[in-house]
Automatic annotation (TrEMBL):
Pfam families: Baseplate_J, Baseplate_J_C, Baseplate_J_M. Residues 99-186 form the Baseplate protein J-like barrel domain. Residues 291-371 form the Baseplate J-like C-terminal domain. The lineage of its organism: Bacteria, Pseudomonadati, Pseudomonadota, Betaproteobacteria, Neisseriales. This is Baseplate J/gp47 family protein.
Length: 380
């Protein structure tokens, strides 16, 4: 039995069906009193109330039971499930970027860039996590920096946008700074779904990161921004596996990971206490498989095109949301057509969209979606 597909409502310790509880309560009363109840009897009104209240109590009992299991637990109860396997929920993390500091320096002058030096864009500030020195011999310096506020607010700034030096770095020498990478990796506190996956993977961590599941566990441990991990032998140019080299591909909530997050995962998985002695770990982003969808909807006669298109766009958003955070999801025109066949649609055409097999270390990325209604409608 695939427990991943087990419906939540099927996990219960007592029957919480209202009709069953009501029938049992009526039968018990009739057996005790010797009276056959009719719907209009006053006792039925009281029994209906008691049966309803008992059903609520049974439902609460079943939900309390579900909350003991990580597959169904939520909120604090999920945190307690994680505590059983030494897997705490990941806190919010700041966006990371690389700042390039530069200055025109002559002679023996030097400018020390201390760790914690701040550069801003609007109200969003980034602080360096390491220090360095500018001199006549080294007039520019690249330093890793993190947003001062954890969460998503630091993500996505274009290269060069973060360029206002907040701190005075030298009394006479002007120091310029700007980000040379797009900040990424900023994420809010880990959500229940991602946390649940890590808890279920936690037993793999009891070994070193030799098993696939162990590498997946420790990679996800780095950041709650990571939503999918693929682990396999690295391959050479001919596709043959390279012995002893482990390729780890990671996907984030925002898609492809930034260099800073890749470096953090590389550092984590290369630790001697996690990695088998002879393993070489290579962490890389998944290879994107880009595709676009041009869908033409043929509508039934009398359908409102605006309403149908709105429903189709909503259906596409739901369909894409289920694939955006998965590696190795094939591009299947039939599935896309089925998703877009909402009420009022007679037929869906997706010209130019081919069936594409996506490898487990690849990411299907839709770069454009265009949904239109055909001029002609049909009776069907």
């Amino acid at each position: 039995m695939d427990l991943n597909k087990l419906p939540r409502e099927n996990v219960k310790v007592v029957d919480d069906d209202l009709a069953t509880v009501l029938a049992a309560t009526i039968a018990d009363y009739e057996a005790r009193s010797g009276k056959v109840l009719q719907p209009a009897h006053i006792e039925r009104l009281l029994i209906n109330t008691f049966a309803y209240r008992e059903t609520l109590a049974r439902q609460q009992m079943n939900e309390a039971y579900r909350q003991q299991h990580p597959r169904f637990a939520t909120g604090l109860m999920l945190d307690l499930c994680g505590d059983d396997v030494n897997t705490p929920r990941l806190a919010a993390q700041p966006a990371l970027t690389t700042l390039r500091f530069s200055a025109e320096i002559a002679g023996q002058a030097q400018v020390f860039i201390a760790a914690g030096s701040r550069v801003s864009v609007g109200d969003v500030m980034f602080a360096t996590r390491e220090g360095g020195t500018l001199s006549a011999a080294q007039k520019q310096l690249d330093l890793l920096a993190a947003c001062t506020v954890p969460g998503i607010s630091g993500n996505g700034w274009s290269a060069g946008q973060i360029n206002t030096v907040v701190d005075s770095l030298h009394p006479t020498i002007a120091v310029k700074a700007a980000n040379i990478t797009v900040p990424s990796g900023g994420v809010d506190i880990e959500g229940d779904d991602a946390y649940r996956q890590r808890i279920l993977l936690a037993p793999e961590s009891f070994s070193v990161a030799g098993p696939v599941g162990a590498y997946q566990y420790w990679a996800r441990q780095v950041s709650p921004a990571i939503v999918d991990v693929h682990v396999a032998n690295d391959t050479d140019s001919t596709g043959a596996p390279i012995g002893g080299t482990v390729a780890v591909s990671i996907l984030t909530k925002d898609g492809l990971p930034g260099d800073e997050l890749l470096g953090a995962v590389q550092t984590a998985l290369s630790a001697e206490r996690l990695r088998p002695l002879c393993d070489k770990v290579v962490v890389r982003p998944p290879a994107p498989v880009d595709y676009s969808v041009n869908a033409t909807l043929t509508l039934f006669s009398g359908s409102n095109p605006a309403e149908v298109l709105a429903a189709a766009n909503a259906a596409w958003a739901a369909y894409e949301a289920g694939r955006r955070h998965r590696l190795g999801a094939d591009i299947v025109p039939l599935h896309i057509q089925a998703a877009l066949r909402v009420a009022g649609v007679y037929n869906v055409s997706t010209p130019g969209l081919a069936l594409t097999t996506v490898a487990p270390n690849q990411w299907a990325r839709c770069t454009r979606i265009n949904i239109t209604a055909a001029a002609e409608q049909v009776d069907g």
